[in-house]
Amino acid sequence: QVQLVESGGDLVQPGGSLKLSCAASARIIGSYVMGWYRQAPGKQRELVATLTSGGSPNYADFVLGRFTISRDNAKNTVYLQMNSLKPEDTAVYYCNIQLTPRVGYWGQGTQVTVSS
User: Tens digits of per-residue pLDDT, 99-115?
Assistant: First the structure.
């Protein structure tokens, strides 16, 4: 099994930036999809961005141009750089890795709060 630990969440003013990190307990070999999701209280969990093992990123429309997903294979870590943050970005952000359609793992989440 793979353990994922998120970090980097904080309280930030509108227009500010944060960089989230997700560290995996082991190096992942082969095909997979790493993703960032978020969930606000009373709202459904939604996809933010994904990054395939082949290096192809995809973004939700509401973060395109503001957020960037990347990884450092040597550190077993995936990142989410968040710029131009808005109050509606406030949520718990979760890291996910999907190894197969049936096997996936989730981190515990990190809180991002955007407020004046």
Answer: 999 999 999 999 999 99
